[in-house]
Amino acid sequence: MPVNPPIVKQQYNHQLHGVYGQFGSGAGINAFYIQSALTPVQLDWISLISDIRGSERWPVSDLFQRDVDNDRITNSLLPYLQDAEKIKFFNPLTLTLLPMQDDDDLVLSQMPRAIKSSVQKDGNEWDLIERPTFHCVRWIRDYPQYAVLEWNDIRTKLVAIDGQHRLSALKRFRHDRQTDAHPNFRTWRIPIVVVSFRADTDQTDPPSVLDVVRSIFVYINTQAQRVNPTREILLSDESVNAVCTQELVQLSHANDLMSADQRISGRLPLLFYDWRGEESEQRRVHAPAAVKGIKEIHDWFEYYILGEDFDADQEIALGINPANRLHDAFHDRTLNHSDSKQLRELAGKELLPAVAHVLENFYPYRSYVTALRELERKHEKSQQSDLARHAFYELRFGTNLAPDAVKQDVDRLLVTLKQEIEELKGEWLKPPVDLDIGMRGVFCAFGNLHYIFSRPPWMEYAKWFVTALNRLYHDKWLELHRRTPQRKLLRHIVEDHSDVIVNYRLEHAESALGAYLQLLTTAYGWPIPKQWKGDWPASRDLLLESLRGTVFRGYRREIRPPLKLKYPDGGRPLTDAVNGEANKLAGNHIRRIERELDKIEKKRKEKV
Prior knowledge:
With 608 residues, the protein is an alpha+beta fold. Helix 5 (240-256) crosses helix 9 (337-349) and helix 17 crosses helix 18 (536-566). Strand 6 and strand 7 (135-140) form a beta hairpin. It contains 19 helices and 14 strands.
């Protein structure tokens, strides 16, 4: 009678191949992990925390992210996966292995002890970390790239700790009818990292299961840093204003990658921008030669030049007509990779060269850049020319390629260069141009006048604008560092009666320095080209009225304290007195501005 073959009971019924790794221990606990990838079908192996029975009853300290935001999945993540034009990439899903109670789907309270051992198998020496009957990680000794994770899905759940929304979206996408339009989805391999912990020695108690989950979750969501705003702008492919900011800075970046004799001499150096967004212990590290940061440049586009992303005004300013493919992208309020590329080309033709022209030719900036370039030439012609090249490279890119033998010499030269650069800043960049308020006013005027004149060609307009801007600058209409007659007219527009800077926020420029510079630029830019349309007299009146409201509020603050001595009981008598006096002072202030504008226009007419 034949003997029945032995029944081999499989201890583990799931297997993944990957790369094994571990970290050093802390408090007697060691973290280990395996990096791998899953097919779309294998996504069903992963559970969400919300799928774990009893998770809603976990203690308050263990309230991990387990409520999935379905609106976010429906309106953001799923459309991203469904869009055949978008390049797909995302960070690995972070998973862990949760041991379950026998014949139940409740999580064990205590993590079973992980046993480290070795075994001969398939002709190789394998090292193992195993929680018997739950799961096991093994790898060929000295070859961690050949690792295997095995688990029993009755006794162990593979659970997403970070990336639950991505996982949910991927699962929905797999069963979505639109997925038929993406046949290559079946070939995807979704990256994962499976993390766990074990006690270092037999004397150390293994951590509880929820301690493991909490440790992973808290680290990911508090210790791992989010991309800072500068890098977020420089990495975004889906924001119109971010793309324009990137391309403007790229003009300088590409120029500075060339040798000194090949560069466009008048182009802003990369040193001008604080473009790396460096941080140390979550604090901003300011680039020594930088004048403007990336966030500030981005805000100029959003507040003054183009408007908010995908608004109709932005589309008009970029010259996008219904026949342009980008028109559909603006209607859908989203950019795919192809759209972004087309936007870069479009903005690079007229808009960005025009913005660069203003920055490169505004007298204080042009003078500072010329001085910077001369400083570089001086040092590179010196006996320390090799050190200077490395030092300026570091100023631009944040690192240098100097041999170890001269790195200390380069560092010493960097200290000297930073001091010299600060002196150049102090020489050429005076208040308010050295402050945010100065260029906010300039670009507010630049963007608004372009609109008032019915959007003439960008470069033609930029040349007219910066010529007029330099005229008013030379005549000291942007003078704060000396007591001049012109400075008096900036009272309550840029600084108050105590010489404190006011109206410096982005939104303030419209009715403060931006309005002031629109009036002066147009006066100094007379005559306005005939081909430019627009009702300037009406716009002039509106700007003066806007300025009047700003200085009226400033005078109210100025005169209220002395008048309060005259009206100690306050109330309506004090308010009426303050409003009456402030109204008179504001009226006189605006009339003085009007007289000066008339004088400037008269002189311009005589010259022309």
